[in-house]
Design a protein that fits this description.
By secondary structure, the protein is mainly alpha-helical. Helices cover 55% and strands 8% of the residues. A hairpin with a 2-residue loop joins strand 1 (68-69) and strand 2 (72-73). The chain is elongated and about 90 Å long. Residues 62-75 and 88-98 have low confidence and may be disordered.
């Protein structure tokens, strides 16, 4: 198994380990402190090699130029070390990893019909990965976890097993939000952090107003996050995948040529078709740029057609 494949597994463990730890810590009773510290150190033991390996790849591999790979247009960026991604062989610019930067795993489908696993479609996926920003957020969270355990070592005397279980649940929600490249999955992990934070503040906070503070924190954050959900769904619905109206494959522009062969002197230009919605964040960024630049693409296509017409008239 290659280093890249091993790192994919470790990325998945960065999400699963805190959640599993949160589930089993109450079983340790009075030994929960030691178990929490061991789990926090183990989490660092996973995060450090992931950070070292990922930092070696990110500068070169996380940003790629626009180009074509078969019937798919490459995006300006993609996730690395995605659990469940399929290999595409020695594709241009990806020979070192053979990765496509998209997972083939699916949690559930939004529509009755589904696209192939490696293509954009209306489905929610366990799409985790690394890029140049979330790598350092995950590393910071991993370093702070044992610090939080040690700081609370003597101060938390009441139900420590529940406290540390909630602490690891909070950490798992944060890391899941940091690593998520599916918009719905990101929202789910973001909302997950509200539950342990509410109980940590209300039960183990300081001062007489901690319960009131916990209620206000939960209600205000939940109400604000509903607008986030509306925004996520709105962006996904209004920016579907642009498809070629004839070949039905993804295109990089809102205006495409009906005949893309190099011998076509006067190609017919068509508007891209609005395809299926997607919750993949890299695909959504690509779609937003395509539809936002539709006017510019149309003017460029018109200028191109006029230039070809002038050349044809000059040749007569």
């Amino acid at each position: 198994m290659s280093i890249y494949a091993v790192t994919r597994v470790l990325v998945l463990l960065l999400v699963l380990l805190p959640l599993v730890t949160a589930a089993v810590l109450p079983l340790f009773g009075r030994f929960a402190r030691r178990a929490a510290l061991v789990a926090a150190l183990l989490n660092i033991g996973i995060a450090v090699p992931v950070g070292v390996v990922a930092s070696m790849w990110l500068d070169e591999q996380s940003k790629i130029g626009a180009g074509n790979r078969g019937d798919e247009t490459l995006m300006r960026f993609r996730a690395l070390f995605v659990p469940g991604e399929a290999d595409d062989g020695a594709a241009p610019g990806r020979a070192a990893t053979g990765s496509v930067g998209r997972t083939s795993w699916t949690l559930f489908r939004v529509s009755a019909t589904d696209a192939p696993p490696d293509r954009p479609g209306p489905r929610v996926q366990p799409y985790f990965g690394l890029d140049g920003l979330n790598l350092w957020l995950v590393a910071l969270a991993a370093l702070l976890l044992p610090v939080a355990v040690l700081v609370s070592w003597e101060s938390v005397r009441e139900r420590p097993h529940t406290f540390y279980a909630l602490l690891f649940l909070l950490h798992g929600g944060m890391v899941g939000a940091f690593l998520s490249f599916d918009a719905i999955l990101f929202y789910a992990f973001f909302e997950l952090t509200l539950i342990p934070a509410f109980f940590l503040i209300g039960r183990w906070g300081t001062g007489s107003g901690r319960r009131d503070a916990a209620r206000k924190f939960f209600l205000y954050t939940l109400a604000a996050s509903l607008f986030t959900l509306v925004g996520i769904v709105g962006v996904a619905v209004t920016n579907p995948t642009p498809l070629h109206p004839i070949t039905k494959v993804r295109v990089p522009t809102a205006v495409v040529a009906a005949d893309s062969s190099p011998v076509a002197r006067n190609p017919e230009f068509l508007s891209a078709e609005r395809g299926p919605i997607t919750f993949s964040i890299p695909d959504l960024m690509h779609n937003v740029q395509v539809w936002a630049g539709a006017g510019t693409a149309g003017r460029a296509a018109l200028a191109n057609a006029e230039e070809r017409l002038r050349e044809a008239r000059a040749a007569l």
